[in-house]
Amino acid sequence: MAEKKGSGFQSGAGLIRYFEEEEIKGPALDPKLVIYMAIGIAVIVELVKVFWPI
Fold first, then answer.
1. What secondary structure does DSSP assign to 33-51, as a single string?
2. 6 Cβ partners below 8 Å, 6+ apart?
3. For 11-53, how does the pLDDT look when each residue is reduced to its tens digit (9 = 90+)?
4. Whole-angstrom Cα distance, residue 17 to residue 23?
5. In angstroms, rounded to a whole number, what is the distance separating the alpha carbons of residues 35 and 25?
6. Residues 17, 29, 45, CA angle at the centre, nearest 5°?
7. Rounded to an integer, what distance in angstroms lies between the CA atom of residue 34 and that of residue 41?
8. What H or E segment, with its residue span, contains residue 53?
9. Residue 2: DSSP 8-state
10. CA gap 28, 8 in Å, rounded
11. Phi/psi of residue 22, each to 5°?
């Protein structure tokens, strides 16, 4: 049975090209900022429940 030489390199080369061409669209946010915003929104929601019960 004959082995194909270089087949691993060809498949890897496509992935390398793909990741090099990938560009980031949109704002870059610090992960800590996202967590702080989520905590802040949760606190606001709980305060609204206390002060304006439905």
1. HHHHHHHHHHHHHHHHHHH
2. none
3. 555 555 555 556 667 788 899 999 999 999 999 999 999 999 7
4. 12
5. 21
6. 140
7. 11
8. none
9. P
10. 34
11. -70, 130
Task: Assign 5 a pLDDT band (cuts: 50, 70, 90).
Answer: low
Residue with tokens 């606001």, as numbered in its chain: 44
Total length of the chain: 54
Please give the structure tokens belonging to residue 33: 């900022």
Tokens of 47: 């305060």
Amino acid letter for position 48: V
And the tokens for 17?
Answer: 């090209």
